[in-house]
Amino acid sequence: MAAVALVGAVVSCSSEKPAAATAVAAGSCVEVTDNTADAMKATVGDCSSATSSYRIVKVGADCAADNAVFTGTVGDAKSALCLAPNFAQGACYAEAGKRPAEAVACTAPEVSFKVIQRIDGETDEMLCGTDASLYRTVPDPKTTFCMAKP
Asked: Are 82 and 26 in contact, with CB atoms under 8 Å apart?
């Protein structure tokens, strides 16, 4: 009986704050709220949210060439992250080199591209229509982003 009570106490304590909602771990998504080189800031968010525009590929600064590099604050902690796009269909972004692209209004002068189609479960740029002038594929989870200049 004591073992059952202890397990129940551990389960109830650990379920008070969902780890997935605050975890800075591979597979989690983040909303980058500031992509300034010296002051990057982000919050962990729901991957299905249009504002969580990046998925954490790796915690650490040794990133693959096709990943955005984030070095800044996530919540209250300093973090170095390798990020892959989790862009929302219909959203516009301003490129920032190796830093994460910033979500901007499609009418903003700094806009670089608009995601005209997001294809989940596929990594094939040939699925993008003729209206797409750019594309990006992400292997995990498989996603194709079809993009164009707005």
From this structure: no
